[in-house]
Amino acid sequence: MSGDVVGDSRPPGTLRGLAERTPAYRERWADLLRAVAILLVVTGHWLAAVVTYDRGGLDGVHVLEVLGWVHWLSWIFQVMPVFFLVGGFANAASLGSSRERGVGWRDWLLSRTDRLLRPTTAFLVVLAGAAMPARALGADPELIGRAVWLARIPLWFLAVYVGVVVLAPVMYALHRRWGLAVPVVLAVLVGVGDVLRLGFDVPHGGTANLVLMWLAVHQLGFAWRDGRLPARRKVALPLLAGGLGCLVLLTVAGPYPVSMVAVPGAEVQNTSPPTVALLSLAAAQTGLVLLLRDRADRWLRRPRVWTAVVGVNAVILTVFLWHMTAVVVAAGVLYPTGVFPQPPIGSAEWIVLRLPWLAFLAIVLAVLMALFGWIEWRGRLRPARTATPPHRGTHERTYTALTIVGLAAALTGLVGVTLADPDFHAPTGLPTQALLAYLGGVFILHLMNRRVTAPTGERTDRVSRGGRRRWCRRPRLPW
Questions:
Q1: By C-alpha distance, which of 351, 322, 337 is closest to 120?
Q2: pLDDT tens string for the chain (479 positions)?
Q3: Burial annotation 117-146 (CB, 10 A radius, 16+ → b, else e)
Q4: Nearest by Cα to 36 from 374, 404, 300, 371
Q5: Residues facing 464 on adjacent strands
Q6: Which of 184, 275, 280, 427 is deepest in the core (most CB within 10 A)?
Q7: Alpha-carbon distance 468 to 479, whole Å?
Q8: How far is CA 20 from CA 12, 24, 316, in A?
Q9: How far is CA 433 from each of CA 102, 309, 416, 444, rounded to the nearest angstrom?
């Protein structure tokens, strides 16, 4: 599922045009899963975020801290394993396609991370740019710090996924050699981390699970792509039943909490770091994905359905990045003005008011999408990358080294931003050193991308028609 399109090389001007250009071999089910997974995460975050207003200040609480009975619902809303499964499928397809076109691992990484980091960079720059004048105008630094912290919550997932993408060429090579043995070994290592942390109380014993668990799920996506994990009932049902069985056993009779998302203040978490309980949920979700694949594929052949899926996927990362910013904006508008009541959490009135709360957040997010969605959409209009002309050995090593440095700086900075305390009150509301490291890394990667996309020094936003060159307009959102 590399997303490469054959035929007309002109960028599609409409959503329908993009949908009609979908290659016959594309796995549409994976695209739907990506969209559904992110939208479920967004909805879950919106439902779980309980903002309170008292004595001129905004505060908040996580609904899982207050309502224990909703912990079971996390088995539905915790769908990040599905996203990593689909990511593995898509990255395997893209890596395979790149090999056929003669594109090396370095240029593949530049292209793949560019799609992730462009919208992320815009998000961080806007966030920092809004915090500084707000503080200069006299806004409470503590309030700004908490608002920025709430808005950047989605970055923890993105940092992990970028790390997995950076490791994808190596992990794909291991997959081609060892197949399903790779995720099995990774799963065992996740279990070892749990034993060290929970059984022997080793400090940071399970920290490696922050990468190992998600790599294991990503490897399952590789296996799904090449048929080692086929969409057949004899494979899907054991995964589904076995995963659910282990999950129930581990949470009911074992030491793991029921909630599959982080509960503030809880001694044991299933996500930070990930546990074998979360891995069991991932196995069950993988089984369900394989079980429903054929029926879903037939449904996705309908033009209107597929067009809607394409539309959501065109800006799905932007939706994810900005959805908690919508919470910040909505809280700042609804609560200080007294427009929105604040009934006790868990009451009938509170439950009913979740619906207009979701509706208002959707409106705010739609406005944010109109402002920033084009950044992601523009990146998706770029044609598939082909092999770059060979360079002399010294230049080639320099480009590779700079790419590695850029990726390391960007990823390190992103992790630093993610881990910053909610009470951190730098001028931007973000850790300055981490932000500068990220921006520096992104700048290096941008320079490397310019070298790859325009190796002859020509502008790449020109197209040739009838022997004449014309400048393309800046792409707009398809709707």
A1: 322
A2: 444 433 444 445 577 888 888 888 899 999 999 999 999 999 999 999 898 887 777 788 899 999 999 999 999 999 999 999 999 999 999 999 999 999 999 999 999 999 999 999 999 999 999 999 998 898 888 889 999 999 999 999 999 999 999 999 999 999 999 999 999 999 999 999 999 999 999 999 999 999 999 999 999 999 999 999 999 999 999 999 999 999 999 999 999 999 999 999 899 999 999 999 999 999 999 999 999 999 999 999 999 999 999 999 999 999 999 999 999 999 999 988 889 999 999 999 999 999 999 999 999 999 999 999 999 988 776 665 565 555 556 688 999 999 999 999 999 999 999 999 888 778 999 999 999 999 999 999 999 998 765 444 333 333 334 444 444 444 455 45
A3: bbbbbbbbebbbebbeebbeeeeebebbbb
A4: 300
A5: 469
A6: 275
A7: 29
A8: 9, 10, 19
A9: 38, 39, 8, 17
Token digits for 209?
């699970």
The conformational region for residue 385 under phi > 0 = left, psi -120 to 50 = alpha, else beta, is beta
Name 102's Cβ contacts closer than 8 Å, sequence gap at least 6: 386, 387
Structure tokens at 207: 């920290």
57 near 336, Cβ under 8 Å?
A: no
Provide DSSP, 16-74: HHHHHT--TT--HHHHHHHHHHHHHHHHHHHHHEEEEEETTEEEEEEHHHH-GGGGGGH
β-bridge partners, 471: 462
What three-state secondary structure class fits 469?
strand
What are the backbone angles phi and psi of residue 429, rounded to the nearest 5°?
80, 0
In our burial notation (b when 16+ CB lie closer than 10 A, e otherwise), range 179-209 reads beebbeebbebbbbbbebbbeeeeeebbeeb
| Nearest of 288, 316, 299, 312 to residue 220 by alpha carbon | 288
Amino acid at 396: E
Which two three-digit tokens encode residue 48? 């779980």
The interaxial angle of helices 303-314 and 28-48, nearest 10 deg, is: 60
C-alpha to C-alpha distance for 429 and 422, rounded to whole angstroms: 9
Q: How many residues are there in the chain?
A: 479
Structure tokens given for 214: 């998600």
Distance separating alpha carbons of residues 161 and 166, to the nearest angstrom: 9
Question: What are 30's two structure tokens?
Answer: 């994976």
> What's the CA gap between 386 and 242, in Å, rounded?
43
> What is the identity of the amino acid at 362?
A
